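Q: Structure tokens for this one, please.
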Amino acid sequence: MAEKLIISWSGGKDSAITLAEIKKIGDYQIVALLTIITERYGRISMHGVRQILLERQAQSLRLPVQTIFISPNASNEEYESKMRETLTGFKDNGLSSVAFGDIFLEEVRRYREENLAKLGIRGIFPIWKRDTSQLAREFVHRGFKAVISCVDSKVLNSSFVGRIIDEQFLAELPSGVDPCGERGEFHSFVFDGPIFNEKVAFTVGELVKRDSFYFCDLLPEPLDV
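A: Here is the predicted structure, written as tokens:
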């Protein structure tokens, strides 16, 4: 029997590559995409993408999505409590693993594994220690499509927000910015690619700055009736 697994899903490119790698392995039953939503805003935490676009992603992927709502500026205690409650429910129904799109941040992986171990669940990291330059180019070459939804203004200016991740985008990233944005330099929303059954349609809306981050509002296009 296939091992039951959840994908930690931000809606961005590293999540999409992780899902593609898990599908390639083929030994897992993917039971859900697990996404953190900032309540009051109704958006994917850090990425700033509307929940309705997350739901359309999941629909295109033919996978259920499990959301966890946290308050703005949530503490680690709140995050961990809600994550523990959700994962315990899945574990009671046979879940054994959670897959993450982390690449090289050792402290992040350690934090995840320590918290999962308390629940008797293991973490899987399909793209761990992959070269991020190669991984970003592979994302483009495999036919994935993603738009930049957020950038850290300390390292990137607002002209990068709302752009599609392609060869030109990668070539124009300043020196010191990780090509996968692994240190939080930028976040993305994947709207098409080889694991999708249909494109998630949107338009790029208003640009806003909150704290040190620029966000662009991605507006869902009406569905064909």
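A few notes: The CA atoms of residues 192 and 199 lie 5 Å apart. The helical segments are 13-25, 51-61, 76-91, 106-117, 132-141, 167-172.
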